Amino acid sequence: MTVPSPILQMTGITKAFPGVKALSNVDFRLFPGEVHALMGENGAGKSTLIKVLTGVYSIDEGKVTMEDKTISVSGPLEAQKVGISTVYQEVNLCPNLTVAENIFIGREPCKLGRIQWRRMNAEAEELLKERLNLSIDVAHPLQSYSVAIQQLVAIARALSISAKVLILDEPTSSLDQNEVKQMFAIMRKLKSEGLAILFVTHFLDQVYEMSDRLTVLRNGELEGEYLAAELPRFELVLKMIGKELKLLEELPKLSTEFKEEAGNKMITASGLGRKGAIAPFDLAIRKGEVVGLAGLLGSGRTELARLLFGADRPDEGTLTVETTGQTVKSPRHAIDQRIAFCSENRKTEGIIDDLTVRENIILALQATKGWFRPIPRKKQDEIAERYIRMLNIHPGNSEHLIKNLSGGNQQKVLLARWLLTEPELLILDEPTRGIDVGAKAEIQKLVLSLAKQGMAVLFISSEMEEVIRVSDRVAVLRDRRKVKELGGGQLTQQHIMEAMAGG
Amino acid sequence: MASRLVRHHLFWPLCVLAALLLFNLLYSPDFFSIVVRNGNLYGSLIDILNFGAPLMMVSIGMTLVIATGGIDLSVGSIVAISGAMACLTISKSSDQSSLPLVFGAVLASIALSLVLGLWNGALVAAARIQPIIATLILMVAGRGIAQLITSGQIITVSSDLYEYIGAGSLASLPFSIFLVAAVLIAASLLTRKTALGLFIESVGSNARASRLAGLRSNTVILSVYVFCGLCAGIAGLILSSNVSSADGNNAGLWYELDAILAVVIGGTSLSGGRFYLMGTVIGALIIQTLTTTIYMIGVPPEITLVVKAFVVLAVCLIQSESFRKSIAFRWAKRKYPAEQEAARHVS
Amino acid sequence: MFLNRKYVPVLVTLGLLAAMFAAGSLRYTGFFSMQVLYNLLIDNSFLLITAVGMTFVILSGGIDLSVGSVIALTTMVCASLVEQNGWPPAVVIPMVLAMGSLFGALMGAIIHYFRIQPFIVTLAGMFLARGLCYVISIDTITIADPFYTRVAQTKISLPGGFVSINVLIALVVVLLAVYLAHYTRFGRKVYAIGGSEHSSLLMGLPVARTKILVYTLSGFCSSLAGVVFTFYMLSGYGLHAMGLELDTIAAVVIGGTLLTGGVGFIAGTFLGVLIQGVIQTIISFEGTLSSWWTKIVIGLLLFVFILFQRVLSERRISIKS
To answer: What stretches pass through the bilayer (chain B) (predicted)?
Structure first.
């Protein structure tokens, strides 16, 4: 038997956006009849690669061949025509149309321009049954079915266009366990039928359960291509984060000593959980303590933080703010109880585009005072000036519109917004992402000095050194589940990574 | 210095207004002449201010609504209802000029407008219906309510006191101008001297981030619709008192559209965020001057609509960033429409 | 049997119509007759045609405020060309239909390519068309052309009464629209775009072409309604069909079409127009009630239906998550 040749091959793909090189010289290949996982942390270039493949983005350099023919796709439609179909996590179908229509829209069986509904429904039913083992009423609107079934319908659509390459972009993120099983069974079936599947997921367990081959990207570059069976989990995590085993020595720890019984409790979560976001977890944060959250992208870090802040409602468990004895019902309620949350989505959940730096800084404090008791303008200016100096915000003009600042400086403005409310618990979600090294160190130092003054801090970051450096204790998350809590001598990169990778 | 002047938000609206006035001056040299008759000032400029008063009033309220990212289509109907209510109350009395009566009538109208504003606000904030759709309800039903109040007739009143609101003079100037000034100042103070303006802009610019910053956006949204209702109510009083009659069918017709136009010309973006009350007032004046101008040069006044159509389009196209970008972009990248899309979102 | 949920709003509308008609029949003598039913169609044929076009626009997730003005402009152009310039109707009518379609296409293109809200673009279109009427003339132009008067006076006998040619035109439009919406690819694309424009793009549907065609169709329907209106009124006037855009939108919404797009039926719109007609008829039969009650009742119905839609979509979201 000869070595099979890849159905799809991408060589030397380079793609730059203004100011960022999203992909540089990346190779990727996909064989028929395999499930190939594409792995990488934030900014690794996963989504850019997929968008290049589906014709959403053009490529600056490199070439894509499909069955030994060079192809150039400039849109989802053309990608479909050459046999590449994508199924996204947020199902990109029309919820108002019937199942059958969603499979066939744009290609409905017609006779003299008249859609033949009966034939279409029959074909849809057959397709779902034959290839996906799914029997549902195809004449019902898509929205009357669960997300899992909607995703299967999306796959059916791809198959009906006779896809040779199927891209599954986080298909399991919003499914429960049984649904995941069903999905996997279908993936296996399709694989055995010779389909090439590109599988993107944040769940490490699922990667190892399903994939034959892995490609790891980091910072827009190819880290390597591996057979799943030959790459231990731990090494995969190392490669994703970008470390060599030998370099895993201890870093100078900024956090002075491990506090066994530091301060009183600030907040306690017990059995707190939300379906599809994070499995029930216990967590207590004490005053004067920095608790780090470590985990890969999509492991449930942000989801956990949002529950603590009342931004999302939990399905189960209790959350108690020990200083007030109350729970947290809404962000406003959290702020009133001295909790602050600096979101990782700066653009959509943080800055208010149209407002100035000064206004962005005072916003949360003003919100707690209500509209009728404005902070006098002079005091606003003083506050803005003070924080601009303290956090070294550039440009140092409080009347600049925040949208014109760089990402790092926007981050500092948001930090200022929350510090101003004098929180007792500060939740920082990726506070140093996209910030230069100097500013990073400043923020880390600031966090420690705040803790020293008695503030409780929950510090979330995908950079492990940083988490270790500032935290007294680290909670590790994997696959939407809190798996371990490490403190004291156990707080090493080795231990954290082992917990992140799991067994 | 010059570039700062050009970039000031009032620069372009003022330029347009100045150009319109200049055209009028060239066309009819006595356009700017103001004469004193019976101790009152008369002239085209005064007319523009006087006739433009209701529109300015409505537009001020509309500005705040649009700043929160909403829209209020029902203002025209509220104008009609408020005028009808006041005239009905007054017309039923034998002594139409008595102070308590007129005062009561005005109060009743204003209370009614506040309730109608509250209705809109509740639909948008509490029931979470899209603003265009929510206010459409009152836009349709409101005309009927106004006609119901007037019984489909034009109610005329003969009350000197009521007439004073829309046609009287104070310190040689039309009284309505003072009303507009008062509401403008009140709105400015309320938004700029308290934190309300900040909250409105914050909610309009990024509702999600505002929620996470602890703002109670529902209260903010509710209050702007109530305020907008109030402004429309006062405008209805001015309008009906100016002609001493209430016409449920035609009073305030097209006002919602003119007001939206005034707000947009004034520099407030239809997608919400930063708002400019002074800009809106100038926008309303531009619309009024345009009407006057067209009237003066002897073209049927209805043709103003054609001009307005082009103004609406021009202003929106200039404001729309995607328009400017798409022109630049279209040449650079003709393929990959989705990337164009993505680029738009990134910037 | 489990009732397909998508038909619920239309069935509610049908029930409402039946209840209103029954109430009218019980209360007023002479209400329950075929001719009353036919009159509903005769008096609302132009509204029906416009509403059909509007249904497609709303299904696609847009809105068209220019319909009333386009009707007025059509009557004006027809009247002026036929009466004042002596053009034959056989030339004028196809011409105004083309004009209306082009007008719609232009608005659609601006909406799609410059990404300005449909509300604003069609508002400008409304101003423009209304203004252009007055450029032609500020006064009414009466049409005395023999072709027009003949069409206007033709009565087509049906069991229990008669209808006008306008009614036939309107019914043909409705039937064609039902076919277009449910049995052609174009129709399904309109639904798809209304359901999710983003998804439609990713599924490779021609979003730009479909959206522009939708507004073209609405422009065509409005101008056809304008032609029908000239048969009905035998005049051209800049104040014709004032505020008709609101009646049209109300008819579509009462007919069960979701204002956010993607869900609705032409048949529902047909019922929505009839409901408006029945309200008017009841009010005219009542005698003491005045015409403004129509607006109030329609506003009330709008409120109920919008809230109803809101609750339905809320439930849908909760099922999903």
So the answer is: 9-28, 48-66, 97-119, 131-150, 170-190, 220-239, 251-268, 275-297, 303-320
pLDDT for the residue numbered A502 = 78
Q: Is the C-alpha dihedral spanning A33, A39, A44, A47 positive or negative?
A: positive
Q: Among residues of chain C, what percentage have pLDDT more than 70?
A: 95
| pLDDT mean over B275-280 | 92
**Amino acid identity, position B342:** A
Q: Alpha-carbon distance A139 to A121, whole Å?
A: 7
Asked whether the beta carbons of B111 and B174 are under 8 A apart, the reply is: no
CATH fourth-level superfamily of A8-246: P-loop containing nucleotide triphosphate hydrolases (3.40.50.300)
In the predicted structure, residue B314 carries a pLDDT above the cut 90: no
Q: Is the pLDDT of residue C1 over 60?
A: no
pLDDT at res. A16: 84
* Tokens matching residue C42: 């005769």
CATH number of C212's domain: 1.10.3470
Question: Which of residues 3 through 62 in chain C touch B, CB cutoff 8 A?
Answer: none
- Are A367 and B199 inside 8 Å of each other by CB? yes
Q: How far apart are CA B75 and CA B72, in angstroms?
A: 6
The 3-state secondary structure of A81-123 reads: HHCEEEEECCCCCCCCCEHHHHHHCCCCCEECCEECHHHHHHH
Q: Element (H or E) spanning A292, and its range?
A: strand A290-294
pLDDT at B329 over 60: no
User: pTM for the complete prediction?
Assistant: 0.83
Going from the C-alpha of A309 to that of each of A25, A136, A340, B144, the distances in angstroms are 42, 40, 7, 48
A232 touches chain C (CB under 8 A): no
Q: Which CATH number fits domain A340-422: 3.10.50.30, 2.40.50.90, 3.40.50.300, 3.30.450.180?
A: 3.40.50.300
Instruction: Assign A247 a pLDDT band (cuts: 50, 70, 90).
Output: very low
Joined tokens for residue A33: 């009849």
CATH number, span A264-338+423-503 = 3.40.50.300
Tell me if C164 is assigned to some domain. yes
Looking at residue A258, its pLDDT comes to 47
pLDDT above 70 covers a percentage of chain B that reads 89
Distances (CA, A) of A48 to A45, A171, A189, A198, C204: 5, 17, 28, 14, 19
Write the residue in C131, C290, C297 that is nearest to B306 by C-beta. Answer: C131
Domain CATH code at residue B156? 1.10.3470
Mean pLDDT across B200-223: 90
Identify the band that residue A2 occupies on the pLDDT scale cut at 50, 70 and 90. Answer: low
The residue-averaged pLDDT of B39-61 equals 85
Query: Tokens 């329609």 correspond to what residue?
Result: C298
Name the residue among A163, A155, A123 with its Cα closest to residue A139. Answer: A123
- Residues on chain C touching B142 (C-beta within 8 angstroms): 299
Assembly ipTM: 0.83
Q: Is C2 on the interface with B (CB under 8 A)?
A: no
Cβ neighbours of B339 in A, within 8 Å: 56-58
Q: How far is C3 from chain A (nearest CA, A)?
A: 11
Show residues of chain A in contact with C201, CB under 8 Å: 76
